[in-house]
Amino acid sequence: MVQMHVDLNTLPVDGASLLQWWLDRVRLVLGGKLRTVYVHGSLVLDDFCPGWSDVDVCVVVNAPVSEGEASVLGTIHDEMGERFLRGHAAGWRSGQAIEACYIPEPLVRDSGRQMPCYVAGDQAGRLCIGHPLPPFDREVLARFGGCLMGPSLAFSRPTRAALVEQTARMLAEIRAQVSGSPSAIWLCGIQHWLARSLVFWRDGDLVAKSAALRREVAQGSPFAAAFELALRIREEGSAVANQYREALRRQFDACALACVAEIERAMR
After folding, report:
1. Where in the chain are the domains?
2. Any long-range contacts for 114-123 (C-beta under 8 Å, 24+ apart)?
3. pLDDT tens track for 188-201
């Protein structure tokens, strides 16, 4: 486990500004119920790409978020969209902002419990019963999670079966899109996901998406052309994705199913 404390001053300026704006408001809503805030995803894997990346957070609370609190938190996320996504505050250029799960503390250690949670992001927030953290997010939190505020907590790691199930669902979604008409953002993002999944299931390494794309290209992957294009768009920012849609579609058609099959072989 390589958990660490995260200092806002060490983060990219736009990411730090977004987090500070959000955290100031969440503190006011949750008060003493707020226990710990963890950052995961690209910010802790040294893979934050301005113009592409969002910010993934897990908020741990001493008691479940109430309906009233959820309503106010939803308003905060709506305001965040206006300020950062559409207003480009602090130079924010990505099409996504903060993706947040608000979970009671017992779910940090036990992902099998059924407790009320709140999930908020670019879509409308929702209260749910269960555990909203996908297995791979839990794996990143357990191994690399960055504690932004509050005491450090030990997240339990997901089972292999849970990781297999999440991967299988994504592979089925990819298959369903072979004859569909997905957006350029989805096409690019799925190449990121495919590269990272290949590295994880074949090599046993959980690495950042950019690192996975570069590793596959450097090793002469049969999918290198698609991964090179996805890496270029990741570095240039999501705003340019539509300019590459036809090239993304061609690369997806050329290699998606073969890549899916390779991941499935590695999972066995």
Report:
1. 4-149, 160-267
2. 115/64, 116/64, 116/65, 117/64, 117/65, 118/65, 118/69, 118/70, 118/73, 120/73, 120/74, 120/77, 121/54, 121/77, 121/96, 121/97, 122/81, 122/85, 122/95, 122/96, 122/97
3. 999 999 999 999 99
